Structures are given as structure tokens and as C-alpha cells.
Amino acid sequence: KEAISEKYITGTQTTHRQNFEAKQMEFFSRYLKTLKVVYCDYDVTELIEAIKYQYESTGGKVSAVFIDYAQLLYKEGDERLQRYEQIKSIVDDLNKLAQSLNIPIVCAAQFNQSKEEPITMSEKNIGEGSDFSKIATSIIGLFNLDKIDPTTTPPKQLSALNRILGKFGLSPIDESNPMPKGYFLVKLLKCRNDVSNISTILK
């Protein structure tokens, strides 16, 4: 059931969904004028057909496909397979599509929470199977530094993070100087060109 909000947009009462959709459209119109966003619950076979249709109907004017997020992908008819077997089949299908259309397919995935540390981010710690990391051409890890608690972060991790922060003109963090809000640690975890372990800070 849709919850009714007491908040107002342009003077009229609205639901949470309407509020979300209004902000969504504002964001898209301001920042993402060339990005087509589709919300769907397709299995991977339907998704691939939809991508092909979009590609062909625009005369190949599709620069990239972004999927959020990979752990929700599924394939009808594979229910009896183990999840890691499903993931392998799905990733294989997407990889073939990317090669056939010659466009990048970018999948967002989540790290295993038990392995979540900024400095030790690894493609091996992507949740639900290693096939993402085996087949992907490039893997970029993002860590929200708002999550860092200097009082619980292991000293070696904190020291390594502070060295990276120092490279970008940020002060070291400790118990008395917490991490400023709004920063991400970005690491290139894998690249087919043998370029890796590149780190930067984004705000």
C-alpha cells in the first residue's frame, strides 16, 4: 500500500512515489539528457533481446549499457542450477552480447560485506561468484568512505588509507579527525591491459 506523505511538492499533497518520480525526472532532465533509463524485471534472455531491439531501432546509437545490479540478474529455466552456475551462464551471455554489438556492458555488483575494507577491495570479493571477475574486461571498485570508523579500522588499513588521502591533499583521519562526508575511494581492480591497483578519491 502506498504511504501518504505530509510533505508537499509545488503546494500539492503527494505520495512518496510521486515525490520520488518528481525528483527522478528533475535529475534526469538536468544531468542525464542522453541516458535512457529502463526499470524492468526481465530475465537475462528478455533483457538481451530488449538491448538488441534498442540498438537496432536506433541504428546502433547505443554507446553503453549499464545494469544495476548484477546480483539481481536471473535466467528463466536455470532454476535447478546452483547460483554460481546461473551466474556463469548469465555472464557468458552478456559477454557475447557485448562482443557482438561492440559496446561495453557495465554491471554494478556488491562486495561481500564481511570482506568490506577500502584498501583490500578485490574482485575476488564480489558477491555471488567469481565468474564476474573472470570474464569482465575491467573491474572498478568503489568504497564509500563515509563508512570508515577510525576507532574500529585496523591500524594497517588506516595507515594505508591515510597515505592515499595524503596524495590528494586530504588530512589523515583518526579518532579526533573523522573522514569528511561525501568521498569515495576508487580503485581499478582489473584491466585486460595489465593495468591495475590505480587508486583515486572522488567527491
Polypeptide structure, described:
- With 203 residues, the chain is of the alpha+beta class.
- The chain contains 5 helices and 7 strands; from the N terminus they run E-E-H-H-E-H-E-H-E-H-E-E.
- Strands 5-6-7 form a 3-stranded antiparallel beta sheet, with no helix packed on it. The protein has a two-stranded antiparallel sheet with strand order 1-2. A two-stranded parallel ribbon has the order 3-4.
- Helix 2 (44-57) packs parallel to helix 3.
- 14% of the residues are buried.
Strand order of the largest sheet: 5-6-7
Which residues form runs of ≥5 with pLDDT under 50?
A: 1-11
Fraction of residues in H or I helices: 25-40%
Percentage of residues in strands: 15-25%
The shape is globular
Name the average pLDDT.
Answer: 80
Main sheet: strands, sense, barrel? 3 strands, antiparallel
List keywords for this structure.
203 residues; alpha+beta; two-stranded antiparallel sheet; 5 helices; 7 strands; globular; disordered N terminus
Quick rundown:
The protein is α+β, with helices and mostly antiparallel strands. It is built from five helices and seven strands.
Reconstruct the topology from this structure.
Layout: E1 4-9, E2 12-15, H1 16-31, H2 44-57, E3 65-68, H3 83-101, E4 105-108, H4 131-135, E5 138-144, H5 155-167, E6 184-191, E7 198-202
Parallel strand pairs: 3-4
Antiparallel strand pairs: 1-2, 5-6, 6-7
